[in-house]
Amino acid sequence: MMMSGFFRFGVWQNFFRAWKRGYSGNLEGEGFTLGGVYVIGAERQGVLLEHREKEFGDKVSLPAVLEAAEKIKPQAS
């Protein structure tokens, strides 16, 4: 995304949302790495949830994470 990420409207919306809520991260690091969340089930269940950031500040839905986590079946002994 590099510099084009700073010109996206959604990035600025996410920034101001975090700022209003008092987020005060250290702002260290390269700043160009997008993150993601995976919920992976036991054995052959595989990936139950995959969320990749499309722009800076793109958050995963907490209810979706909880729903996916509830689908994890315990391993057979």
TrEMBL record:
Belongs to the peroxiredoxin-like PRXL2 family. PRXL2A subfamily. Pfam families: AhpC-TSA_2. Signal peptide: none annotated. Coiled coil: none annotated. It comes from Syrrhaptes paradoxus. One of its GO terms (cellular component) is cytoplasm. Keywords: Antioxidant, Cytoplasm, Redox-active center. GO terms for molecular function: antioxidant activity. Its main location: cytoplasm. It is found in: Cytoplasm. This is Peroxiredoxin-like 2A.
